[in-house]
Amino acid sequence: MKNTTYLLLSFILFPYISIQAQGLLQEKNNFTHQDTLRGSITPEREWWDLTYYHLDIKVNPDNKTISGTNTIQYTVLKPNQVLQIDLQEPLELTKVTQNGKALEIKHDGNAHFVTLKDQQNIGETNSVIAHYQGKPREAVRAPWDGGISWKKDNNGNHFVASSCQGLGASVWWPNKDHMYDEVDSMLISVNVPKGLTNVSNGRLRSTEEKENTTTFNWFVSNPINNYGVNINIGDYANFSEVFKGEKGDLDMNYYVLKDNLEKAKEHFKDAPKMMKAFEHWFGPYPFYEDSFKLVEVPYLGMEHQSSVTYGNKYMQGYLGSDLSGTGWGLKFDFIIIHEAGHEWFANNITNVDIADMWIHESFTAYSESLFLDYYYGKQASAEYVIGTRRGIQNDRPLIGHYNVNNEGSGDMYYKGANMLHTLRQLVKDDEKWRQILRTLNSKFYHQTVTTQQIEDCLAEESGLDLKTFFNQYLRSIKIPILEYNVEGKNLNYKWTNTVEGFKMPIQIEINGVTQWISPTLENQTLKLNSKDSKIKVNSNFYVTAKVL
Q: Which residue positions in the chain have pLDDT lower than 70?
């Protein structure tokens, strides 16, 4: 049975760490035709490479509708005349045109197959304009069960925001809704009722005032993943600062409800602290050209690129709670640190397939402890990440099923963080570890990646054989057990509960003296100096110690 502390943590933590479309925590094994259309690189997707979007929409909060167009520009990679556009019901894709010609659309659930009339020649850059309208899915419990949140602030003003990780960006706008192909740049034009402000990704290029509405034009100059695109509409106040970063001056902008302006000016001091710590660990913020923003929203928060959303109620920790149970989690605002950490892992380095979402969440959950390391030291960092183990369920592997839009276990957060913390111990040199993290962000700068690419890079940069290490922690639910006993002056030990061929050295203390041993799946013996030696296994390794 779980104890009361564990149950409390599960209640607080697991609604956050499972961001599947219906908030599911269990495995989904029966995949549908729609899962395949959503999660695979179909023939109707693979032949064209995204280069530019112009999302031009009108948002009407009074009747909860969105209408407008998305201009989709692409380069032809190989011959094909059918193009897949994704848009989820109940929104309607009403028309698609190319060069002024209306095109035939075959609707297949949330996937729409457009037959092009003009010849698609390799190397050409072409575009289509997708017209759509309707009432998008309303978020039930954003961000876990996402869509559009149609709320009002305390003064009765509309307070609207999008959130769609896992569920997919096509829940509110038509696009190529697969992670593998990020658009190179994007213009986001959002028309809202006068008196409201829309904040989206990138930099505000211009505003257009009309009699009863205002259009806000935001330009994103860097590649962006689809779920990272957002709209945030409210009665916002804005303040800003300039951060002196590794690549020069970084504009940091904050948009909050007007009633919260003074509170935010004090509370958001965590943002430049975050930037300083994460540039130290991970390298330069990846989107200087697009600035950095924190935007208040009517839900908890999400890692939208250069437009990180915030709803942690101006509390330290996770809504005032410490997920680690150590006290260290109350030294920072969880949403500011965690969601901004995704700028490096999720927005800079993005998984090709959502099955590999551990790349986003494991590194970012681990970033919480690195923030503590930077300001409070290595011991604080270790205590925090070790404390988060109490929320790990080991229900299923961290890697999901490929090509069907399926995530792995919610353990990708803190089991993944503890896997990385263990790897830091194996690297042994903290500066080398820091350089490895920076290398990941420079080598895969603005790229989509696979698990294998990340594994290979970590192995190459560390100089370690990590094949069975990753098989153990990513592809198995087994936690290695170090079985040992002392017989006279002999310490006997071996690994159990492991994948085939598992090998990992580990640090132990013998009578207070630190020593490395290299257990295998076979019994090994180490000679001791005395019969009454006291053995302690280093808790920084995510393993179980069992005295026989």
A: 1-29
Peptide bond into 284 cis (omega under 30): no
Amino acid at 108: D
Predicted local distance difference test score (pLDDT) of residue 300? 98
Check residue 13 and give its pLDDT. 44
Report residue 221 CA to chain centroid gap.
Answer: 20
Tell me, yes or no, whether 448 and 493 share the same domain. no
| Chosen domain end from 474, 505, 523 | 474
- The answer to whether residue 172 sits within a structural domain is yes
How many whole angstroms separate alpha carbon 19 and alpha carbon 409?
10
Q: Beta-carbon neighbour count of residue 104 at 10 Å?
A: 11
Last residue of a domain, one of 243, 276, 311: 311
Q: Are 148 and 161 in contact (CB under 8 A)?
A: yes
Same domain, 228 and 126: yes
SS3 call for 43: helix
Looking at the structure, tell me whether residues 199 and 253 fall in a common domain: yes
CB 518 within 8 A of CB 502: no
> Based on the domain organization, do 392 and 526 belong to the same domain?
no
- pLDDT (tens digit per residue) in 334-383: 999 999 999 999 999 999 999 999 999 999 999 999 999 999 999 999 99
- Percent share of the chain, pLDDT over 70: 95
Q: Could you list the residue range(s) of the whole structural domain that residue 230 is in?
A: 51-311
> What's the pLDDT at 532?
87
Counting the structural domains of the chain, the total is 3
Return the CATH number at 485. Answer: 2.60.40
Residues 127 and 73 both lie in one domain? yes
pTM for the model stands at 0.94
DSSP string across 144-187: TB-EEEEEE-TTS-EEEEEE-TTT-GGGTS-B---TT--BSEEE
pLDDT at 488: 93
Chain centre distance of CA 281: 17
Are residues 464 and 490 both part of a single domain? no
55 and 81 housed in the same domain: yes
DSSP per residue over 185-216, as a string? EEEEEEEEETT-EEE-SSEEEEEEE-SSEEEE
Q: Can you give the pLDDT at residue 382?
A: 98
In our burial notation (b when 16+ CB lie closer than 10 A, e otherwise), range 457-488 reads: bbeebbebebebbbbbbbebbebbebbbebee
Residue the block writes with tokens 């640190």: 337
Is residue 42 a part of any domain in this protein?
A: no
